Amino acid sequence: MSSEVITLAHGGGGRRTGQLVRNLFLKAFSNPLLDRLHDGAEWEVPAGRLAMSTDAYVVRPLFFPGGDIGSLSVHGTINDLAMCGAWPMALTAAFILEEGYPLSELELLVSSMARAAREAGVPIASGDTKVVERGSGDGVFLTTTGVGRVPEGIHIDPRRARAGDWVILNGPMARHGVAILSVREGLEFGTSITSDSAPLHRLVRSLLSALGEAVHILRDPTRGGVATALCELAQAGAVGVRLHEEALPVEPEVRAACEMLGLDPLYVANEGRCLLFVEAAAGPEALRLMGPGATRIGQVVAEHPGVVVMEGSLGGQRVLDLLSGEQLPRIC
Amino acid sequence: MEVCGGQTHNLIRFGIDQLLPPTVQLVHGPGCPVCVTPLAVLDRATEIAATPGMVLVSFGDMLRVPGSRDDLLGVKARGGTVRMVYSPLDALKLAQKHPDQQVVFFGVGFETTAPAHAMAVWQARRLGLANFSLLCSLVRVPPAMEFILTAPGNRVQAFLAAGHVCTITGLSEYLPLAERHRVPIVVTGFEPLDLLSGILLAVRALNRGRCGVENPYSRVVKPEGNREALALLDEVFEVCDRPWRGIGTIPASGYRLRPEWAEFDAELRFPGALESAPEPPLCRAGEVLLGSLRPPDCAAFGRQCTPESPLGAPMVSSEGACAAYYRYQRARV
Known about the structure:
The structure holds 2 protein chains of 2 kinds. By secondary structure, chain A is of the alpha+beta class. Chain A has 9 helices and 13 strands. In chain A, strand 2 (63-64) and strand 3 (67-68) form a beta hairpin. The longest helix of chain A has 18 residues, at 103-120. The relative contact order of chain B is 0.17. Helix content of chain B is 38%, strand content 18%. By secondary structure, chain B is an alpha/beta fold.
């Protein structure tokens, strides 16, 4: 079926829909929850609290260095659950396909999605497919929803920042956003930078089981980057955040690409990164658990509540604020 | 005065202006090509973008600049075709890919990017691209420096010249300027150490009562400039008088296509139909661009004028002085 394209019949609910579901989705995603072919998935409810999250994916282009919309939609929702302190139990996936989209490309996306789910150990338990007329979509729009379980005694809350907390980032920033820009039509530039898209639930589990209540906040700095996430957290907790410019981890190639495009890496999207606010006493252990890429980038302070301040390498300081929109590449 | 908006942003971003003694005051210059693009040209660009069958191609930081009716992002949201690229040559690729559409490149910039525009036009002729043209609003720096030095009430005693611009032009136009007005001009890069060494050399020259051109940015700038780029510029463009938004017409401050390249001139190919509205009276962007008004001293700054709803271009351009002050919000630290 590889020379075929998506037609409105694939979304009509009839035979073609059934073929698409059986031959593509069920084959790729097969798991006991999905294979029952019920209208929804059901399973025993564990003790404790549940977490739920949903995310819509509209990335362009659909395939980018280091990932694609399929793997991204799995990692993204798993990470949103993980940032609540939850262990992801199952995902659902809703596909909005544009009429005329090549089936061979859809197969690639679905198999990438299935691989990401398998590697993460999280089943895709239920799904839906709709087809919209040509021109009404952009190839594939994808929404995933996830449910996870929060272990006893874990309370991750964006309002829990306390003065003295260490602010730790688990790896160099801005890779995902730069990788996407490097292949966007009209802006292409040659680079070996790949997206950092990756699931974070195992890292979070090891942090929570070792440090428990000392972990105050987890946040994945996706759209808007590290700066936007920190501004939101400073406001939510009515605390100040101070960053050390020289501590901010940016790979040289990413930094060069950002300089060329006139982008501040602090505001560029990440997909496999995690910001951690942790009690100072547990900071060194958190750094050890997060691996060699992790860096302490700053700390929480009682002064200037709601404001993120960057201490520059020369001794000057400046406020990091929310941007009014997306960063746009500059002239020179 | 640091001439270039990129320098302004880094001076404020790294807090260098905070670290200087009070006797050294930095005045922000007009070096933001987006900011000085005349309203009439921007309106023409939005008109082109809104026309079916036409594609307006632009650098990213032009998209949020307010025209008299709309900005380019607004035109795009209402169904116009606006494409963002990093180089004028990318617009040629779009023209080749979409032969049924008229592709217009919005040419905004200083001498730094002017050669890439010249190359795009030159290549378009070589490729026989009948659906490519240039809406040209390219400007030149030395005439603007001269304009500032001769303006009544001028406070500028020394210049940090824009390093990237000098990469192309070399120093030949700056030597007579320094002589004529008895000012030190220091060719300065953009990294914090470049900026600090530029300031140091300018202060030393002033202390010793010397004028002239110094080039501590010699790792990038050669005295003769980039000869190939200058030859190409001269082949495709000629110098013309050009209006600067908020400032007025500065003699010999622009480039336009030579008559033998007029077939690629978007203004001739697509004459505009709409009149531009006057600038909002509250906006004092012209004074900011000439260094006679600090952005936070403008009554509209952060009140009627914000990045979400700008009155003038310096609030939204990535090189605009108002944007630098707004973004790094000193007052709140």
